[in-house]
Specification:
single chain, alpha/beta, OB fold (Dihydrolipoamide Acetyltransferase, E2P), Rossmann fold, 4 domains, five-stranded mixed β-barrel, five-stranded parallel β-sheet, elongated
């Protein structure tokens, strides 16, 4: 609840030159200056009061702060001004969304007719309900991974068609169109207008986003709005809009307010631009810069190719200057004699090896012949074996009447054993059959 404790109670007599209703007629109207002076005279007699509220705007300009204070229970607001000298004495760091207690005095600017409150003291009293809700939502979305860079979609290098969600006939729309067309005249826009503040902001922005995301020709979507106090930008921190942006298939660029404005949409969008103008510059490449870049790349490529070809030609010329390549036949002629000697040596080694092996074969043949049974038979010996093929080595193996086969050098004879011959056998050792 806002508490007022006036230091002086208004009600003193008005200044002598104050505007009185009887002095103001259609035939003799009073001047604007006189009216403003009268208002200022009344305002100057008001005392200072202590007021409690939530900071909804905090703009630093030239050392002074210009902001707005919102009632904690209603939508009532007031403008305040805080000079740099007062700000230097403050021990608390104040930001948008903080709940504060301030000592204010009404101030009326005669020249411009503006009414504001000058702050002489201000101290921090906690977080405002609005900021606390936003911080809880920010923490929840961060836990769910909606702020992770890994889920953000890349912005196409040269979008052929840009979807734009912004207010109708707004400066943000003009800034985006003008700067994008200056950078790339052939760029096309698909613009869907939506309310950028108030109760219609979220549903109309959601409808526009859904329409553009379903359009296959749209390569990137820009949500743009001019600057404003944080209260006016609340729609761009709505949870429904944030989840819809995270679910789109088309990359989304957030261009809300100015550099100091930071709704939650900036964290969920695939790219955050500080202003609508910055969005156009970051989404659309500059045709002049791209042409210059292409020229630089072509020059570098030409230089690289020229250097490489020149280097290879120098290496080739160096190789050609070597004697072996200048007179290739000299390499063969120097090796002809070596080849002849190697061939002669090869023939000699082969002939020697053939002679050695021929003698070895002859020796083996003679040894084989000496051990051959045929050679033994050729010397007049015979081999006797029984009918079942057993060779007789003992006379006792062939009793009398045993049929025998006698093998000679040429042919075989059939015989019958007469039994063992006594030891007084013929001197030639023959067996009597």
């Amino acid at each position: 609840m806002t508490t007022f404790r006036p230091e002086t109670v208004p009600g003193q007599a008005p200044p002598p030159d104050a505007v009185h209703p009887r002095d103001s007629r259609s035939e003799a109207p009073t001047s604007v200056s006189r009216l403003n002076e009268t208002i200022n005279g009344f305002v100057q007699r008001w005392g200072s009061v202590w007021v409690e509220g939530e900071v909804t705007s905090w703009n630093l300009r030239g050392g002074a702060v210009y902001g707005r204070l919102k009632d904690l229970g209603t939508d009532a607001t007031l403008s305040f001004r805080l000079w740099s000298s007062v700000r230097a004495r403050m021990s608390d760091a104040i930001r948008v969304g903080d709940r504060v207690v301030a000592c204010v005095k009404a101030d009326y600017y005669v020249k411009g007719g503006d009414f504001t409150f000058a702050v002489s003291q201000m101290r921090h009293a906690g977080l405002g309900d609005q900021l606390e809700r936003l911080e809880r939502l920010r923490a929840q979305l961060r836990r769910e991974g909606l702020f992770d860079p890994s889920r953000k979609k890349p912005i196409p290098f040269l979008p052929q068609c840009i979807g734009l969600v912004t207010g109708e006939r707004s400066d943000a729309e003009k800034d985006v169109h003008r700067n994008a067309e200056l950078r790339w005249p052939q760029v096309r826009f698909r613009t869907v207008h939506a309310a950028v503040q108030g109760d219609r902001c979220v549903p109309e922005t959601l409808a526009a986003l859904k329409k553009l995301d379903a359009d296959p020709e749209v390569d990137v979507i820009i949500i743009a709005r001019g600057g404003g106090d944080p209260q006016a930008l609340l729609g761009f921190s709505d949870e429904r809009l944030l989840r819809a942006v995270a679910a789109t298939l088309t990359p989304v660029v957030s261009a809300i307010g100015h550099e100091n404005d930071h709704p939650l949409l900036d964290d969920v969008a695939d790219l955050r631009a500080s202003t609508p103008t910055d969005a156009a510059k970051r989404v659309v490449p500059d045709v002049g810069e791209q042409r210059a870049l292409v020229g630089q790349l072509r020059a570098r490529l030409t230089m690289r190719l020229t250097t490489r070809v020149g280097h290879d030609m120098a290496q080739l010329e160096q190789l050609r200057s070597r004697p072996v390549l200048r007179e290739p036949e000299s390499l063969l002629s120097g090796r002809t004699h070596d080849l002849f000697l190697l061939a002669a040596r090869g023939r000699e080694v082969v002939d020697r090896r053939m002679d050695v092996q021929a003698r070895r074969v002859a020796e083996l043949r003679a040894t084989l012949r000496a051990l051959s049974p045929g050679a033994t038979l050729a010397r007049g010996y015979a081999i006797a074996h029984t009918g079942d093929g057993r060779i007789l080595r003992d006379a006792g193996q062939a009793p009398a009447g045993t049929p025998l086969t006698v093998t000679l050098e040429r042919g075989s004879l059939a015989a019958t054993s007469d039994g063992e011959v006594p030891e007084s056998a013929p001197a030639d050792g023959g067996t009597k059959l």
